[in-house]
Each structure stands twice: as structure tokens, then as C-alpha cells.
Amino acid sequence: MESPKITVIVPVYNVAAYIKKCAVSLFEQTLDSLEILFVDDCSPDNSVEIIKETLKKYPARNSLTRIIRMPSNGGQAAVRRQGIIEATGQYIIHCDGDDWVDLDLYERLYDTAVKKGADIVVCDEIHECYDGSHLQEVGLLPEHCKDVIKNWYKATLGMFCHNKLVKRSLYTEHDILPWVGLNMWEDNGLLARLFYYGDKLAQIHGSCYHYNRTNINAMTSGYGIRQVEQMIGIAEHLTEFFGTKKDAKELERTVLAFQYLARINLVTDSFAKLRRYNNTFKGSEAIIPYLDLNAFSNKGRFRFRMVKYHFGWLFVLMFKVKNLLSNRN
Q1: How many C-beta atoms surround the C-beta of residue 68 within 10 A?
Q2: How far apart are CA 209 and CA 119, in angstroms?
Q3: Contacts with 39 (C-beta within 8 Å, 6 or more apart), sequence order
Q4: Which long-range contacts (CB under 8 A, 24 or more apart) does 233-240 make?
Q5: What mean pLDDT is reported for the chain?
């Protein structure tokens, strides 16, 4: 039996308010041979029941749709890992349970991958916010995947799993899986390695992934020290990974960028964390003059500039005052 053209992996956890819209956008894809893996991370709500009820209206999707239940709640990295292991498609892509996709997206991604012989194909995103929809168009990419990684520090491409179709053989031939327990930045850890091993790169415009920015429960909506430590853990793994490669010298600045972008998140509301920042990935500040500002959010750019000009202490003080005023209100 021929493999499905694409496997889409959908983590499911506390997304009852959004999962029907997500599922419908997958079941109504114009691509016929689409394997859909909903990976239930022991969700305490009725997300899975909603998926099952929605699937009843799309009998043609039954044979290639599975709901996989994790043995225990393991987090994003463990869920993605399980989905990748169980995927049988020629290509793999991820879709978060609170997001949705244009109905022709996967067909266009697949056709482009086949036509251009690409290992990875990238699409644009639309950020769905309270004030409307905002197109986030990916700029012109190089023809080869490794060039993205070699120049990532100065031409940052968001390492999101959801807008990148990846040939499954890249995962299997190089034994690339998420690092379990590191849920923040797990996509950085995954995609950086995939881009390193990938060959031809392609992109499409006009069909998009819709990234829901209104879900306050999403992992990326806010994080604390535990998440920052996971980001540092990803940077440590990537440092080790790239350090073993024959072309490690060409990747030094990208490694420094990952180190520094993880490290700077220690600069928040605590002078103890600021001291920890000063002692983490020492030397990675050498990348500061070369960093692409697009690697930061608007708020992140302000912090970066404060730290760059040695005003990290003032940023911490401002953060403390802000928290104090918020608590009073």
C-alpha cells in the first residue's frame, strides 16, 4: 500500500474551544492522501470527543485519521516525538490544536515539494489576533536548507514546525526526534537539525497557516524560569550537535546566536537571574553586533538594547517596578 502523501501531527491538550475549527480545516483539505494524527496528551477536557464527533461528518477521512493517546501527560516534545515515530507519510508537518490552515495548503506544499524535489517547503503565516488578521510573510529563502542554518544569526527564520513541510526521510535517516522534557523551544531544536541535513529548500505564498494568538493558555503566551531553563537546555544540545560536525567552524555564529537568545531570557525581574545571565554561555555576547533584530519580539528588542548597552540592571529594576504596580492594582 502506497504511503500517504503527508502526515499532519496535531497535539491535543485543553483545546476544546478551538479543536473543531482545526479539525474541520484538516478534514476539508483538498489533498486526498492525508494522514492525520491527533496525539492526545491526556487532555482533561472533551477535546477528543469533539474530534470524534467532527470526524463522523467526513467518512472519507476515517481510514487515515488516528487518535493516539499518550500513556501520561508528557508535554509538547513528547507528543511531537510520538507523532513523528508513528507517521507513515512521505512528508511530515505539524498543526497545533488551537490553530487552523487554508484548505489548499497541504496540497500546494506537497505539489511544490514534488515539483522542486525539496526536502523542506515553507509557507507564510497569518497571526490571528484580537485586533484582526496579520499576514507574516516569509522573506526570500536560499535554495539550500543548510544555508538557512549557516546564516541564521543574521537572517533569522522562525523555527516553527507548523509552517514547514519536511520530508520524513530527513527524520528517519538522521534519527531526529525532539528532546523529551524540553518543551520550550523544542521546535528550534528540531528544525535546526532538519535544516542542517536538508538539501533543497522551497517556499510558497498565498496559502497560509493560521496561528491563533488569542489562546491565553498556549505555551508561548507566557513563561517563567522553568521554560527559560528548557530553552537553555535546547541551546546546550544544539551546541553539542553542531560542535561534532565537520563544518562546525562555519556554524559557530549560529551556535552563539542560539546560546545568546536563550540566555537573554534570564534578564527579567531578578538581580539573581541577572547574575545567572552573566554566568551562562559566557562569550556568547560576541554575537550581539551580528544578531538579526527579527529574532526578537517588539518587547524582546527593548530588552536586547538595554542589555546590549549594559543597562540590564535598569531593565530588571523597571521590571520590578512594573510588577509592583500591577500587584497593587
Answers
A1: 17
A2: 19
A3: 9, 10, 11, 12, 68, 70, 79, 80, 82, 83
A4: 233/179, 233/182, 234/179, 234/182, 234/184, 234/185, 234/186, 234/188, 234/189, 234/258, 234/262, 235/185, 235/259, 235/261, 235/262, 235/263, 235/281, 237/179, 237/182, 237/189, 238/188, 238/189, 238/192, 238/193
A5: 95
Domain spans of the chain, in order of start: 6-220, 223-328
The whole-number pLDDT of residue 321 equals 85
Q: What is the pTM of this model?
A: 0.94
Q: What is the pLDDT of residues 311-324, one digit of tens each?
A: 999 999 998 888 77
Q: Rounded distance, CA 164 to CA 50, Å?
A: 27
Read off the pLDDT of residues 195-212 as tens digits, 9 standing for 90 and up: 999 999 999 999 999 999
* Percent share of the chain, pLDDT over 70: 97
Kindly write down the DSSP assignment for every residue of 118-166, as one continuous string: -SEEEEEEEEEETTEEEEE---PPPSBHHHHHHTTTTS-----STTEEE
- Name the fold adopted by 6-220: Spore Coat Polysaccharide Biosynthesis Protein SpsA; Chain A (3.90.550)
